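INFO  loader      accepted 1 record
INFO  loader      residues=652
INFO  predictor   begin
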Amino acid sequence: MEEAATQKKDSQHVSPALLTEHDVFLFKEGTHTRLSEKLGAHLTSSEGRDGVHFAVWAPNAVAVSVIGDFNGWDKFSQPLAQRPDGSGVWENFVPGIVSGDCYKYHIASRDQNYQVDKADPYAMFSEVAPRTGSRVWDLAYDWQDGEWMSRRRAANALDAPMSIYEVHLGSWRRVPEEGNRSLSYREIAPLLADHVRELGFTHVELLPVTEHPFFGSWGYQTAGYFAPTSRQGTPQDLMALIDHLHQAGIGVILDWVPSHFPSDEHGLTYFDGTHLFEHADPRQGHHPEWNDAIFNYGRNEVRAFLLSSALFWLDKYHIDGLRVDGVASMLYLDYGRKEGEWIPNAHGGRENLDAMQFLRKLNEAVYRDHPDTLTIAEESTAWPMVSRPTDAGGLGFGMKWNMGWMHDTLKYFQQDPVFRKFHHEKLTFSIWYAFTENFVLPLSHDEVVHGKGSLIGKMPGDEWQQFANLRLLYGHMWGHPGKKLLFMGGEFGQRREWQHDESLEWQVLQYPLHAGLQRWVSDLNCCYRAEAALYEKDFSGDGFSWVDFHDWEESVISFLRHGRQPEDSVLVVCNFTPVVRQNYIVGVPRGGYWREILNSDAGIYGGSGVGNLGGVEASPVAAQGYYHSLSLALPPLGVLYLKHVSENGEAA
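INFO  predictor   done
INFO  writer      dumping tokens
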């Protein structure tokens, strides 16, 4: 207490509070969504002097001071004063500090045996790891993406084509000549934009760029919820990357992690000598799967912290969407726990009622303030109505990852084609629930790590069959209802399992099968974006109809995708065996010429060249409930896309 008294006595230069009474009310209520403008370090002036106003939430501290290079890290020279309004916020103006200065908060807890130096939870920039100090920073940036921002509502709409390229910036490309370093944000900008645009993806999704102490966590152990990692540059450098992508017509989705945070001493855990951000009881506050801390979603100030983080990236960095990580772990109190290792809710159930409320408030705030953006849930269970409005009882997300489709489809493709007929239901089951949510079909980083191998490595058969299988997988995926997501390296068939500290295997593109696969992905995206039937009704049952899902003996399926216009239909036929099937009959809804608009077995993709010479004339022979049918040559391990055209070759 003597130390606290000394700090209070020496307190000077207290500037007019940035926090108003209304801010404090919203903070305590848990509804404040712009706390980054009130708490943290803000360059300002007071009484004619330039400096920084510091504010930090530490309600259970008896003394808080700012330490840094500017005061020799002296814990007594720059004390903060506790506000008298019961907010738990400590603040002060410190003159002479400039942008770029490093700092931390020295916190003395009510438990006098506990004193700690903490990074600023609201810091907008940090030192380069392994150093852990926060840095004062001005986020001013001259954005040049006005055209994109004015039209991104259409690009993010549920009836728009959405093909997402998932990227870990630290390992997409590296510079082996310079110690295998990662590219900076500005270095990667033109290279990534050109690659994504050439391949035809509409969006990139960045694995978390929020500051994290352990690079091997890929960003998922977030410590800085308002700071981009300094490993690859400054905040303005990241803004320049996003700006460049936007100018190239590419949307940017950020992986955001409100589900857990690391227990590093300089971070959020045990912040003021108490379990402030996390639950005190390990049955609620410790994440057994990731060995991390779990946010206390029932604490109003914690909800406001997380809401403010989400809105911050949309406000300041022009992010177009948030993919929310680990939603299932948030929703279930018994997630990853055995009997007796969790505490039921007030009704005796396993649902986390506080997390449900937080997620609903999150989505309401995002769509209220940025209705032209989107939120996507990584939710791996059958929790109902994840992507339905909150006023209808849903969680309010725009979309949800379809983990069931991913697991079933990969299990099917890993089967030797001889045995696939015994697993036919894994191909067809996803349609039974395809329209219960707004689904994204993910082939993400999670499927190519931790000993799972690469996507190409999962495919059975010799090298030719492996690549044919992977082309077939992508063709089936792009035809299936739902938006698309593919992790980097999958576009050219990287052989090695993804390594976060190594570059992708770009050198394999010198080989025809790898180059052919990348061209296939590019042409898939081109066709996908050109054909409204493949995206307009992704989330409506009348956008899909089976032609035949019963042919398990031959391992063939066929279906139609429909757009809003009656003539906008695309027929997709998949042959999941290496056997060429001549004169295979497929029913179609109208007579005339059906043009083959995509064939995964074409020679330019590395295929064997089996096809239908550009198209087939429908015969007036009924099949599978239709009055007309096509007699097709089905390529081995191949997929065909066909579209009806008029006699003169134009689209009908």
